[in-house]
Specification:
membrane; 131 residues; mitochondrion; mainly alpha; 5 helices
Amino acid sequence: MRGVMQEAAARSWRRGLERLRPLAKNKTLRYGVPMMLLIIGGSFSLREFTQIRYDAQKLHSKIDPALEERIKKNKISLESEYEILDIFETSCAKLKSSDFGDWKNIRGPRPWEDSKSFQEQQQQVLHSKPS
């Protein structure tokens, strides 16, 4: 009796495999379904990972309350901004008035060269050339 039941189970198993064989040869099921699963699964996983990134940014953007109080106390005034702007304008004016026509291109030492001996050699070359 047991042998008959095992044979029947084996036959039904073989019939089921024979029915699935044409599906295994179907290119849509073989390549298309895994591709669609990859695309849809990737979309959901990317959504989760980006949410983690935004949550981490929220945590990093929170400021310590003591530091926030110090920032509120040290507000930047309009007068201090004008002072900074004035300093910037004077330095720009100095740069505009300077003459860059008589500069010399001086080669620096290479990493494998001794910098002191190279500088001495450059000094000798500069002093020996008539300008």
